[in-house]
Amino acid sequence: MVVTSALALAATFLLGLIKISSPWLYGGSVTLFSMVPIIIISFKMGAKTGFVLGVNYGILKLILGTSNFIFLNFKGLLCSVILDYLLAYGFIGAASFFRVNKIKDKKFNFYFSVFIAFCLRYLCHVISGIFVWRALLAQKISTANIMLYSAGYNVLYILPELTITLMGIRFIMFKWPSLFGEGHLI
Predict the structure, then answer these.
(1) How far apart are CA 15 and CA 124, in angstroms?
(2) Which domain holds residue 71?
(3) Would you say residue 133 lies in a domain?
(4) Is the entire prediction scored with pTM above 0.85?
(5) Is residue 186 part of a domain?
(6) Residue 138 belongs to a domain with what CATH number?
(7) Number of domains in the chain
(8) Three-state DSSP class for 50?
(9) What spatial distance separates the first Cα and last Cα of the chain, rounded to whole Å?
(10) pLDDT tier, 73 (very low <50, low <70, confident <90, very high otherwise)
(11) Is the sign of the CA dihedral 119, 122, 128, 129 positive or negative?
């Protein structure tokens, strides 16, 4: 389990380096299938293992790729670390937790749980963005505008990231359905 998780973490990190050109100056990016290995681990080994893997990815990403923190106060920094890195990716890793037992269609249930995990990731980024932008622009922009800006800014990369992730998972389901654990999804 440790070796498989480590390989998934490495694959996630390497896939995260393949970024689609983006206009996002203050963080956020659309990557090529980077969340797929974490989601596979979540469904193969369980939500707890996936959550830990997601948090570890967030820590790795935090250590190796932060440059925007120099402008933040302590509260903004703390919120960004916890929400943008630890919880956001932890929720992606816990995707299998969001399965609904009453839904009989396994594929729909799978996609639904991944969608919920991405919605929670989005919510983490939006809340963090509110704290960050309030710390940076409190005198220039109203709180309502900060909330709208954070929601709009984050949806512009989360939605394409979700779409690409679902496409990658769909492809893998056809090629290697055994990766998704017992009772294969296909």
Answers:
(1) 22
(2) 2-180
(3) yes
(4) yes
(5) no
(6) 1.10.1760.20
(7) 1
(8) helix
(9) 24
(10) confident
(11) negative
